[in-house]
């Protein structure tokens, strides 16, 4: 992946170095900053959607020259604790993983790895607090014309360029829509399947067992297995100076409307009105069965009125999704056509769940992580105490166990668990694990009457995957808990 192709530089740490000031004076260097206009709308069913909007963020304390904007959406499940905690801590965790005194180019190049470290640290700290709730995260950073999006879960971010093309900047981590994530979980020892009923009928979406979560990635969810990881998909693009519009929405929107529908129903409207219109459209189509939240962000040239996107011809080619055909994602509500980008430049994209790959020093800024500091939680340790992210790697060549970056003991243990190399309680992963009451509520909305489930001790318990475990344990006390949580959505 190449580093950001920016031409301006700015240093932080309270004062801009003299050399940079002289360079600006001699070259008349200017940092190009667009106008950012935002709109936010939501309708609440459970009260588990949270947003974070902050403009003019400083990279370093006292640095008012090089600023950026942050827009984030947190869609919680099984309670709101995880969403609230991520909202309050994620940004600071990301920034703490970026060294001081980087130029703007270097800062942008370091940002994708810092986002990975920040997401994992937030998840680790949350689990240390014994919180069992979870949350999706779509986290957007806008620096000049460069947009960086990190995401876990099924809240999505799309971009409509000034030319009218539509791009997806996030990933869909629903197991139903992501075959690669299904393969990752099963390869690590996890189980993926639907609920089984008497007679062998299957109901509901694909889920990861134990726990029954429909998502493969989230922050939190400590009681649904180590296979649910917080490592985000990260995409970084550079817009043309004509700008564009971002639409960041929870699954309450995308379960009702396609990307193209969201763009079309809000085209030509101011950001605030556009967000309200998208939410209204989703409610009219599917009703209010879940929290529905939408953030619209217009990135515009300075001192210009918001341009009205030109009307687009209907028919084929109206939806341009990812930048490479192999990266195109589709859901039951997403158009499936792909085409090459026009004036939106891709800088970086990575979606691997492997920390060794995401924190590898082959990326720019090789000295990003200090030798005796954990690359995830930023805890300092003594020489010899850290463990390389490459420890135990089966790869050959330049990767060696003593190559950094390094992890502290607890972060290394988490890395091993996420990769299926360690399981709670030690030993091999059990074939079937009981459903914990705190996560059983994820299933309640789609459960038929208890009599339709295979009772324990029947032939169904020898069926593949772990779906019989669901029937077995739902016939006991856990099922009563599920009925009490009957208003929960099937999605999480």
Descriptive report:
Its EC number is 3.1.3.16. Keywords: Hydrolase, Magnesium, Manganese, Metal-binding, Protein phosphatase. Strands 2, 3, 4, 5, 10, 11 and 14 form a seven-stranded antiparallel sheet that branches. A five-stranded antiparallel sheet has the order 1-13-12-6-7. β6 (156-161) and β7 form a beta hairpin. The protein has two domains: 35-174 and 228-350, PPM-type phosphatase domain (Phosphatase 2c, domain 1), CATH 3.60.40; 179-214 and 431-484, no CATH class. It has twelve helices and 16 strands. It is an alpha+beta fold and 492 residues long. 25% of the residues lie in helices and 21% in strands.
Rg over CA atoms, rounded to whole Å, is: 23 Å
Portion of residues in beta strands equals 15-25%
Biggest β-sheet: count, sense, barrel?
Answer: 7 strands, antiparallel
Give the CA-based shape: globular
Helix/strand order: HEEEHHEEEEHEEEEEHHHEEHEEHHHH
Category by helix and strand content: alpha+beta
The number of distinct helices, counting runs of at least 4 residues, comes to 12
CATH topology of the largest domain: Phosphatase 2c, domain 1
CATH superfamily of the largest domain: PPM-type phosphatase domain
Name given to the CATH architecture of the largest domain: 4-Layer Sandwich
Distance from N terminus to C terminus (CA atoms, Å) equals: 34 Å
CATH class descriptor name of the largest domain: Alpha Beta
> What is the domain tally?
2
- Count of DSSP strands: 16
pLDDT averaged residue by residue: 74
Query: What helical percentage do the residues reach?
Result: 10-25%
Please mark out the parts with pLDDT under 50 across 5 or more consecutive residues, or reply none: 1-29, 313-342, 363-367, 423-491
């Amino acid at each position: 992946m190449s580093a950001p192709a920016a031409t301006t530089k700015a240093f932080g740490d309270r004062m801009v170095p003299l050399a940079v000031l002289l360079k600006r004076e001699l070259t008349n260097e200017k940092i190009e900053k667009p106008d950012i206009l935002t709109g936010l709308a939501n309708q609440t069913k459970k009260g588990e959607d949270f947003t974070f909007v902050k403009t003019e963020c400083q990279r370093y304390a006292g640095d008012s020259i090089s600023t950026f904007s942050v827009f984030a959406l947190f869609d919680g499940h099984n309670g709101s604790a995880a969403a609230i905690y991520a909202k309050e801590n994620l940004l600071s965790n990301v920034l703490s993983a970026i060294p001081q005194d980087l130029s703007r180019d270097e800062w942008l190049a370091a940002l994708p790895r810092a986002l990975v470290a920040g997401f994992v640290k937030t998840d680790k700290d949350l689990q240390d607090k014994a919180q069992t709730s979870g949350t999706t995260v779509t986290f957007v950073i806008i620096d000049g014309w460069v947009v960086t999006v990190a995401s876990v879960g099924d809240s999505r971010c799309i971009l409509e360029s000034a030319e009218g093309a539509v791009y997806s900047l996030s990933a869909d981590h629903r197991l139903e829509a992501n075959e690669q994530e299904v393969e990752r979980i099963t390869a690590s020892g996890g189980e993926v399947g639907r609920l089984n009923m008497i007679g062998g009928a299957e109901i509901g979406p694909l889920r990861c067992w134990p726990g029954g979560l429909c998502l493969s990635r989230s922050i939190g969810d400590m009681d649904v297995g180590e296979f649910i990881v917080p490592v985000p998909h990260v995409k970084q693009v550079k817009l043309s100076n004509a700008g564009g519009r971002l639409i960041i929405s929870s699954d309450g929107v995308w379960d009702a409307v396609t990307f193209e529908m969201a763009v079309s129903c809000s085209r030509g409207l101011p950001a605030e009105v556009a967000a309200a219109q998208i939410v209204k459209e989703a409610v009219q189509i599917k009703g209010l069965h879940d929290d529905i939240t939408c953030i619209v962000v217009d990135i515009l040239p300075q001192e210009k009125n918001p341009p009205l996107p030109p009307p687009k011809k209907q028919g084929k080619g109206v939806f341009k999704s990812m930048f490479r055909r192999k990266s195109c994602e589709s859901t039951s509500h997403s158009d499936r056509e792909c085409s090459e980008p026009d004036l939106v430049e891709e800088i970086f994209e990575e979606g691997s769940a492997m920390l060794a790959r995401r924190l590898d020093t082959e990326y720019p800024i090789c000295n990003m992580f200090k030798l005796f500091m954990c690359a995830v939680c930023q805890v300092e340790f003594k020489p010899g105490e850290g463990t390389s992210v490459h420890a135990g790697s089966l790869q050959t060549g330049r990767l060696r166990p003593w190559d950094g970056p390094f992890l502290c003991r607890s972060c290394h243990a988490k890395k091993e668990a996420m990769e299926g190399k360690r399981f709670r309680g030690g030993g091999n992963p059990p074939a079937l694990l009981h459903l914990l009451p705190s996560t059983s509520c994820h299933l309640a909305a789609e459960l038929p009457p208890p009599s339709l489930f295979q009772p324990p001790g029947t032939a169904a318990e020898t069926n593949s995957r772990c779906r019989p475990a669901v029937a077995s344990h739902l016939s006991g006390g856990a099922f009563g808990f599920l009925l009490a949580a009957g208003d929960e959505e099937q999605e999480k």
